[in-house]
Design goal:
Distance between the termini: 114 Å
Shape: globular
Order of helices and strands: HHHHHHHHEEHHHHH
Number of strands: 2
Largest sheet: 2 strands, antiparallel
């Protein structure tokens, strides 16, 4: 009896295997349908790492603005003077200025800052004239005259009254004048002992220096010493911003360069938009 049961089970297993093989031969499309998805899966590219790491690969996609920030053909010069300026600021200017600020009250330092601004009004007025901004030059002259008559230039009295014409002292420099004339900004350029700029900005600084009447009235030595003292008086605003940018940066040079160029580009864009809005304002007013 056990033998008969074993023979029956063996015959049933052989019949099932024969039926399965016959079904396979009768439907060849089944292999294709089953293997096709497998082939697609094997040929499909592996998922990008961005899905696993939250899209960190976006940092590899640089826009034109990012490429402009990285355009640094004078990097050798710039890195050398970055190190020199960093040492000069951290180990000489900062400790000396902290002692100076401890001795000299903030009110006196503010008055010196106002005097430094007012005494250079001829440079700003000349640049306004070179840009064709004659109304701006008139406002500059009037404001400086009031400040000197009321406070000998140690206070900004004129700022308490709103001028009839918009006052934009940030445009009254030879750097901006060159931009109005169509001179390109040029690459990033660090000025020795002064800090980050561009090639056009460095030329603008030189042009403004030659426009100072005190250079010719008092002599270059006294004028340079006075300019150095005025810059030292405001050094806290410089090294505070500098430390904020560079202290936590992995690459301080790159952080300073990108921050400066971004700030400069945004300032120029805002000035252009403001200037265009002011040019359109009278015409719109007349139409209304």
């Amino acid at each position: 009896m056990p033998r008969l049961l074993f023979a029956a089970l063996l015959a049933l297993a052989l019949a099932c295997s024969a039926a399965c093989s016959a079904h396979k031969e009768a439907s060849p499309v089944a292999d294709t349908e089953i293997s096709a998805p497998a082939q697609e899966l094997s040929a499909a590219p592996e998922p990008a790492d961005t899905e696993d790491y939250g899209g960190l690969d976006d940092y590899d996609d640089f826009s034109e603005e990012d490429a402009a920030l990285q355009n640094d053909p004078l990097e050798g010069w710039n890195r050398f003077w970055f190190r020199v300026n960093d040492w000069f600021l951290q180990y000489l200017v900062k400790p000396l200025h902290k002692g100076y600020a401890f001795i000299v009250p903030e009110a006196i330092r503010s008055g010196i800052s106002n005097f430094a601004h007012n005494v250079t009004f001829p440079v700003r007025m000349a640049n306004s004239l070179l840009q064709g901004e004659f109304a701006q030059a008139g406002v500059e002259f009037d404001r400086s005259l009031v400040n000197f008559m009321v406070s000998l230039g140690f206070a900004d009295v004129a700022s308490q009254s709103k001028p009839l014409y918009p006052y934009r002292p940030e445009t009254e420099n030879f750097d901006y004048t060159l931009g109005v004339w169509g001179v390109p900004d040029g690459p990033y350029f660090i000025i020795p002992f002064l800090g980050p700029s561009t090639v056009r900005g460095a030329v603008g600084e030189t042009g403004d220096a030659f426009m100072k009447p005190q250079d010719y009235l008092l002599g270059w030595e006294i004028s340079i010493a006075g300019s150095a003292f005025f810059a030292f008086n405001n050094a806290d605003s410089l090294y505070k911003a500098y430390d904020q940018i560079t202290e936590s940066a992995l690459e301080p040079y790159v952080a300073l360069r990108n921050a400066y160029l971004s700030m400069r580009r945004n300032q120029q864009l805002n000035l252009t938009l403001t200037s265009n809005a002011q040019d359109k304002l009278p015409a719109d007013t007349v139409q209304e």
